[in-house]
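User: Okay, second chain of the day. Same drill as before: sequence in, structure tokens out.
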Amino acid sequence: MESENTVISMPRINEPAPAFEARTTHGVKTLEDYKGKWLVLFSHPADFTPVCTTEFMAFAKRYPEFQAINTELLGLSIDSYYSHVAWVRNIKEKFGVEIPFPIIEDLSMSVARSYGMIHPGAADTSAVRATFIIDPEGIMRAMVYYPMTNGRSIDEFVRLVTALQTSDANKVATPEGWQPGDQVIVPPPADMDAAEARMNEGYECTDWYFCKKAV
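Assistant: Same drill. Structure tokens below.
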């Protein structure tokens, strides 16, 4: 069993996401299978637990929205394939919600460890609520961790993927709470001459370093 001083392997933003090959409820999946699409990979502590059930149902209900923005979902817990299948069937039977995306079987904890999902301070044998957003080139773009006791907001992950796609497409940043249709932030000028010219470039500027525009 790991001690609390165990070093946790962590992926890093803007570097390649850890490769994996794993059995899932939809057959064997690899990271390479998702090339060309955005991927939201998320872990949960265990099957047949109440908070996780609410999250999976919420992800399932928003799945068409994720697909509309070229994004796939992939769940994971340190449970067996058979446990995953039984839980998915239970959710459909008891709650009337079908889970349309795969769930990784990770009894060896190999995927969970490579993604830094095991936090000994929370549990040695369960993955915390970690969410990873990976772009179509397999690059890690965002990571969000929640404690075991509190469920995630799926709205935020739809928003975050959309914001990342908007930033990539327009070479801009997005402000706090940004939603599609809101103005975006123009990158600050790179030198004094650009700063001098910025106020006359047609943006909505509060000052030379803080300008917005519509996209």
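Residues 5 and 120 are 8 Å apart (CA to CA).

User: Thanks, on to the next one.
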